[in-house]
Amino acid sequence: MMRTIRTAALTAGALIASLVLPAAAAHADTVTPRVDLRVLVVSDGGPSTDAIAAELDTAGTPYTEIDLQDAARPSIDADFLADTVDGVPRAKFQAVVLPNDNPFPAGSAEMAALVAYEQTYAIPQVDAYTYARPEAGLDYPGYSGSVDGVTAEVTEAGAAGPFAYLDGTVPFDDDSPDVGESYAYLSTPAEGADFTPYVDAAIPGQSTRGSLVGEYRHDGRRELVVTFVYNQHQQQFQLLARGIVEWMTDGVHLGASRNYFAVHVDDVFGADDRWDTELNCTPGDIDCPPGQGASDPIRMTPADVDYALEWQDRQGITLDMVYNGAGSETHREENNGQDELADQFIADRGSFRWVNHTYSHSYLGCVQDVSVVPWQCATNADGTTQWVSQSEISDEIANNRSWGQTNGLPLDTEELVTGEHSGLRILPQQPEDNPNLAPALADNGIEWLASDYSRDPAQRQVGPATTVSRYPMNIFYNAGRAAEQVDEYNWIYTSRAQGGSGVCEDNPATSTCLTAPLDTATGYADHIVPLETRTALGHVLSNDPKPHYIHQSNLTEDRIAYPVLDGVLDTYDTLFADNTPVVNLPMKDLGIETQRRAAWDAALDAGQVTAYRVGGTVTVEAPDGVAMTATLPTGTTQDGAAFGTAYAGAVSGWTASAGQPLTLTLPSSTASPTATADAPDGSTTSTTPPTTVPAGVTEQVPYAPEN
Question: Coil, helix or strand for 26?
Answer without folding.
Answer: coil
